[in-house]
Amino acid sequence: MQADNPSYFKTRIAPTPSGFLHLGNVLSFAITAELARRGDAKIILRIDDLDRERVNPEYLRDIFDTLNFLGFNWDEGPRDAADFEQNYSQLKRLEMYNKFLDKLCQKDLVYACTCSRKQLNEGVDCKCFDKNWQLSTPGAAWRIVTYKDTVFIKNYQGEVTEMQLPGSMQNFVVRKKDGFPAYQLTSLADDLFYGIDLIVRGNDLWDSTIAQHVLAKDLGLDEFGKITFYHHPLLTGEAGEKLSKSAGSTSIKHLREQGKSPADIFNLIAEMIKPELIAENWQQLAGAIV
Ligand SMILES: [Zn+2]
C-alpha cells in the first residue's frame, strides 16, 4: 500500500445492463471500492442505458442483485431498478448530450456515415466524409473528424501519459444510427456531470479513455483532463481469453445459482489472478492487487 494516498472527491461503478455481470466486472468494482476507500472518495453507481437494443430489464435488476449480494456499497445513484428508471436513466440527460453534439456540429467536426455494420465489418473503406451526406440523412451515424492529436492522460500511479488515438478509433461514432448519442460522448458527459475525479476501468478501455480525451479537447472541456485514471489488468479464462458477458459460466447469477457464496466468488477471482491468493471479500481481493 502507498504510504501517502492521494485523496479524491468521487469515483464511479459504471456497469452496462446488456448482460449479466461477470467475474471481470466484480474485479473492477473491487478495485474501484478499494481506491475510493484509500482516497476517501464517494462512489456513485452510474448505469449506461442508451444502448437501447441491448439493454434489458433483467440485466438491470442483476446489477443491483449482484452488488448487494457481494457487499458493495455506494453513496450516490439509484438504489434499485425502479429508482434508476425514474431518476437516473440516461434518457433524462439527452438534452445535455445533444448540446455537446450541437457544439461539435457548430465546429464542423462531424459528418454523416451511411455505411452498414456489415460493410464496416467486412473492411469496406468508409468514404462518407468525402460524400458529405446531410447530417439529417435517415439512419446515418455521425462520426467525429479526428486528427493525429496527442492527448495527456493523468494516471493514478502519478505520471501523465501522452497518447494518440489508435487507427481503429479514428473518426469514432458520436451519434448512433438510432439517433442516440454514442458511448464515448455520454460517458464523458456523465462523468463531468457527476463530478467524477477518479475513473477505474479495465485495460481494454484504454482506447475509450483516449477517445474521450480527444472528444473533451474538441469540446473545450478542460476539466476532463484533470480526472485521474486507473486501468487495471483483465481477468483471463483458462485459455487466456478475455472474459466476456457471453461467457455465461462466469456470470455471478450463474455462480449464485450453483450455490456459491460471496466468499467463494471472491476466492475464485483471487485464484485466477494468483493461485495462492485467498480473498473472502472485496477488501482482501483488491488489497492484494492495488
Ligand atoms: Zn461511412
Question: Can you give a write-up of this model?
Answer:
With 290 residues, this protein is of the alpha/beta class. The protein has a domain at 10-92 and 190-287: 3-Layer(aba) Sandwich (Rossmann fold), CATH 3.40.50.620. Helix content is 38%, strand content 14%. It contains eleven helices and nine strands. The protein has helices at 23-39, 57-70, 81-88, 94-106, 117-121, 128-131, 183-193, 206-219, 252-257, 262-273, 282-287, and strands spanning 10-13, 42-45, 110-113, 141-144, 150-155, 160-164, 173-175, 198-202, 228-232. Strands 6-5-9-8 form a four-stranded mixed beta sheet. The longest helix is centred in the N-terminal third of the chain and has 17 residues, at 23-39. The radius of gyration is 20 Å and the shape is globular. The N and C termini lie close together (7 Å). The model has no long low-confidence stretch (mean pLDDT 93). The structure holds zinc ion (ZN). Zinc ion binds at residues 113-115, 126, 128. Zinc ion binds next to loops.
Query: What name goes with the CATH superfamily of the domain at 10-92 and 190-287?
Result: HUPs
| H and E string | EHEHHHEHHEEEEHEHEHHH
State the helix count: 11
Strand order of the largest sheet: 6-5-9-8
Q: How much is the radius of gyration in Å?
A: 20 Å
> Biggest β-sheet, characterized?
4 strands, mixed
Could you say which overall geometry the principal axes of the C-alpha atoms support? Answer: globular
Q: What are the low-pLDDT stretches, counting only 5+ consecutive residues below 50?
A: none
Strand percentage, roughly? Answer: 5-15%
Q: What is the C-level CATH assignment of the domain at 10-92 and 190-287? A: Alpha Beta
End-to-end separation:
7 Å
Average pLDDT value?
93
Ions, cofactors and other bound molecules: zinc ion
Please name the CATH topology of the domain at 10-92 and 190-287: Rossmann fold
